[in-house]
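Input.
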Amino acid sequence: MANYRNLEVWQLSRVLTKNIYGLTTAFPRSEVFGLSAQLRRAAVSIMCNIAEGQGRWSARDQCNFYIVARGSLLEIESELFIAADVEYITAEKLEEHLNQTEKIGRKLTGLIRSTRDR
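Output.
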């Protein structure tokens, strides 16, 4: 079985998850069960789906989990825009996190393509 922890995309997702947790600690208390929780769940979903995909036997099953991870990544992007729109984060923080998600997105797309081509 391949070690998901060696995948750069998983490592980048781990950093993003840590950053999302840090970012959301500054959100208003009223968002504990709202936007903050959604962002955290989506970030954790990326890491976990990459790991779970690595544990699957077939390339098709692996791809399905990587695609779910990509969906969670895009969810984070949308939620970051909401956070910026309601002024929970600055435009600079939005840009910083979007740069992270775009890099992860490229890596996930590459992982999906290489897995499908096997």
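Helices lie at 8-24, 35-54, 59-85, 91-116.
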